[in-house]
Amino acid sequence: MSAQSQPEIRLALDAMGGDRAPDMVVAGAALALAQHPNLRFLFFGDEARVRPLLDRHPALASASTLMHTSDIVTNDAKPSVALRAGRQSSMRLAINAVDDGAADAVVSAGNTGALMAMAKFVLKTVPGIDRPAIASIMPTPRRPTVMLDLGANVECDADNLMQFAIMGEVFARVLLNIERPTIGLLNVGSEEQKGHEELRAAHALLRENKLNLDFRGFVEGDDITAGTIDVVVTDGFTGNVALKAAEGVARLYAQLMRDAFSSSLLSKIGYALAKTALVRARKRIDPRRYNGAILLGLGGIAVKSHGGADAIGFANAIGVAINMASIGLVERIQEELQRQNGEPRAAPHTAAV
Amino acid sequence: MSAQSQPEIRLALDAMGGDRAPDMVVAGAALALAQHPNLRFLFFGDEARVRPLLDRHPALASASTLMHTSDIVTNDAKPSVALRAGRQSSMRLAINAVDDGAADAVVSAGNTGALMAMAKFVLKTVPGIDRPAIASIMPTPRRPTVMLDLGANVECDADNLMQFAIMGEVFARVLLNIERPTIGLLNVGSEEQKGHEELRAAHALLRENKLNLDFRGFVEGDDITAGTIDVVVTDGFTGNVALKAAEGVARLYAQLMRDAFSSSLLSKIGYALAKTALVRARKRIDPRRYNGAILLGLGGIAVKSHGGADAIGFANAIGVAINMASIGLVERIQEELQRQNGEPRAAPHTAAV
Predict the structure, then answer these.
(1) Is the residue at B317 inside a domain?
(2) What value does the mean pLDDT take over residues A71-100?
(3) For residue A319, what is the domain's CATH number?
(4) Which residues span the domain enclosing B51?
(5) B265 to chain A, minimum CA–CA distance in Å?
(6) Is residue A352 part of a domain?
(7) Nearest CB to A256: which of B267, B269, B285?
(8) Which residue out of A256, A261, A285 would a mutagenesis test of the B interface target, given it has the greatest number of B Cβ atoms within 10 Å?
């Protein structure tokens, strides 16, 4: 299929969000455009800083519109304050573009709490979802595992967790093409009596299995990257800590390997010989490859890039937005929720544990 | 120093705890004895199963006493039930041996909740500590980081977290020889307004800094293995999930590397050349090397081995018990708590953030 025949996808980018913004936002967009020529970008940010960066990428500049704003949501801004005072911020204007229909999705590497608060305020949640959740995929030796919530909701009740399970299941089905994703609830032990009260209540709700989800009970932290479960459901506090702990170990491991390969002439030669295979393996768990978390449950597509992302990482977050927009994720979740409430998919199975 | 001149250390072992018990308990003890000839073991378990294993290791058999019991605490036993009904279990009798003075420390790879409940009931907490915590060390590119609680207390209040900080600080000073360990509180963001209410309250307590701890504020999941902080304080739910998530990624990484090195002839040769350096690097993050979590805050030394540990892992857990017993950890924590309450160590510093 030629690029010309693909429908245009229009992305609103918060040019000022992230530790290395606006440079990595523009460079990431340029990388994404090289891969997906059917993109159009709406950049929101400080013209004096963004324009010179765009000018370095003529192809990108001609596929982009730059909307000037000097207002920025800082990383330490409280979400409530950002929501009130940041109406002209690059983040907010980029979100508004999705609501206006000017863009198909928004991508920001800025303050997560502010992005969630603004996106929820502007785009609203879809009917049946009380709180949106942040979802992303994690590498495993098998197919990737979906994990949510990664930080949108510090405290969650059983209903929230059940809604996350529904959304995570649709996400895994639609994005990863898994016919009947298995779902686990993150806990400190697989025994039913362990864990917080909300977890036990969520377990009971999911066990009732009125939703016809393939719920497999409690899972533990090491199941996240084991490939034993397709969707890991947790609250935003636990999910965020687990995600970052996992990223930290991946970085530690990569550094120890680098040190080992440069420690002697023999190991340098060894690296050179094994390089192709090693680079392939490392790519499979490169956190940049997994960058781009989706804010699930909103009436529009919003993707959060890691704040520390570089251009490659940001380009991956753009890739997630493209996937979601192409798939029509919002509509798929809405359909699923309507189906869950109206006509059940099939006779309930007995869930295996 | 010859082995003969070292004081004898007497360890009580729960021979029946752990997925691969009693085999890996006996094999682990044999490994530990080869390294530390000054050990004496008290095995508690099923004589019919343990005796034949001991007979395979004559040196170990002659350094050991086997106390028969057929009662075992299962992995799915509720702590409260184990406490009531498991008075003749191998786990309980091994803990009793520490209380009786027959052993200097107990090591078990069994049910964590039951071990904690029994150890707390039998050994009591030291004055000033309401709840014991499970602590272990994590690998980093620099010196190791101490993390606690790893699963003893699913919910913690601000006072619990503050007590964990005190105990973790002593642990880091005594075990890792860090003169003034830095302390961080695990959260989802480094901004003060984030996180649970108990976390904010604990932050305020530690900020007051009456304890003269070097408190550095909130840290995030990726700080656990970054070497940026000496002691990471968290509740047992979050700590357990983070620990297991970290272990999961380490396993995933190791598997991907193995696959990469066996994927072609060239990479096999590459591995052979770099092997020495790679094995050294891998050892640094081998979860078995970090096996052996200590139950801090008790009136005796109790070490929890990972339930899935093999002989090498269990031998490491024994090594932790030896260290703690040699150092007199319980007395050091008691001294520190008395000093904290009575005579302050020095004029309070202003904590750096």
Answers:
(1) yes
(2) 94
(3) 3.40.718.10
(4) 1-124+297-328
(5) 9
(6) no
(7) B285
(8) A256
